[in-house]
Amino acid sequence: MTLLSEIPLEHVQVSNEIISYAKYSLGKKLNDNIYISLTDHINFAIERLNQGLNFKNALLWEIKRFYNHEFLIGKEALQIIKKRLNIDLPEDEAGSIALHIVNAELNSNNIDQTLDITKLIQNVLNIVKYHYKIDLDEYSLHYERFITHLKFFAERIFSGKEIESDDKSFCEIIKNRYKDTYKCTEKISDYILKEFNHKLTEEEMMYLTVHIRRITTQI
Question: Please, what is the angle between helix 34-50 and helix 68-85, to 10°?
Fold first, then answer.
């Protein structure tokens, strides 16, 4: 209440309109914290613009690729701001608004965690590309499924959840049948252990291997 009392009413109203649109477009509930975080962000973005400060979103490219729906909502949010407040915010702000929406979808109170998830996805993709020395088909169904898997995979890492299974034999079959792919998965495992102090389970290794096999054999 203290925060909102210091923000112009029209900024609160436009933020509420954007959140209502996001809920409708996504067809899902969002964490109520977005009413505070997004309103504060939009108000600060407008203040920066008025002061002539130019903000560059370093993850704009990744946000467009990994959270395309949320980014399109961010683009619509800029149109709402333009219509209601006659203020033109740059495209970088559409990316930032998208991240706040993603954060609310994840039911998280930590925007930094959402940024880490985005970086983790990009770095895992880079490991796969460099291991196979290929470019991935970003328009394929297997790629889209892999990105979806990585989102949930990253969310589990930061929430401390793990996939467990009693079917150890299937894990061994995957490991032995796709040896080179499993080596790529081991590189990903080493990266995650080093950067996030999280040791992947055999089941997580297996699922990663299956997805990597699919996106690299269709090239």
Answer: 60
